[in-house]
Design a protein that fits this description.
CATH topology: Ribosomal Protein L22, Chain A
Number of domains: 1
Mean pLDDT: 92
Distance between the termini: 48 Å
Structural class: alpha+beta
Strand order of the largest sheet: 1-3-2
Order of helices and strands: HEHHHEE
Number of strands: 3
Radius of gyration: 19 Å
Largest sheet: 3 strands, antiparallel
Strand content: 25-35%
CATH class: Alpha Beta
Shape: flat
Low-confidence stretches: none
Length: 134
């Protein structure tokens, strides 16, 4: 590994020590459906977001709820403190498209229709609430 690449990697590792996040790779839900649920909780308090996700009827909300609990556990493990009410907020939720499994479905007259089974990658970052002093 070159010197510049090593320096960048070390800087990224130092940055990850102070950020609290969880990642979900190759989730078998289309990115569009996951983004609709992610837009609901972006910027919310953590416990309010958990309650919103728990009572949402979409399938993606269950996966996002589990990811949010994992991010909270990561925060507690890194800081060695228990999370209190109204201290954490969902800073960002990024949903990227993942692998796409391609299948063929039989169609009339010897043709075949393409089926694309989409997956996504979700990165959820939480942080402490900053108070704006005016």
């Amino acid at each position: 590994m070159g010197k510049r690449k090593r320096l960048v990697a070390e800087a990224r590792k130092e940055g990850n020590k102070t950020s609290y996040f969880a990642k979900l790779n190759n989730c078998p839900t289309s990115p569009r459906k996951m983004r609709q649920v992610a837009d609901l909780v972006r910027g919310m308090d953590v416990y309010k977001a958990l309650s919103v996700l728990k009572f949402n009827t979409r399938e993606a909300s269950g996966r996002l709820e589990k990811l949010l609990k994992s991010a909270i556990a990561n925060y507690e493990a890194k800081t060695e403190t228990k999370v209190e009410e109204n201290t954490l907020v969902v800073k960002s939720v990024m949903v990227d498209s993942g692998l796409m499994v391609k299948r063929l479905r039989t169609a009339p007259q010897g043709r075949g229709y393409r089926i694309r089974k989409r997956t996504n990658h979700v990165t959820l970052e939480i942080g402490t609430k900053t108070l704006d002093k005016k």
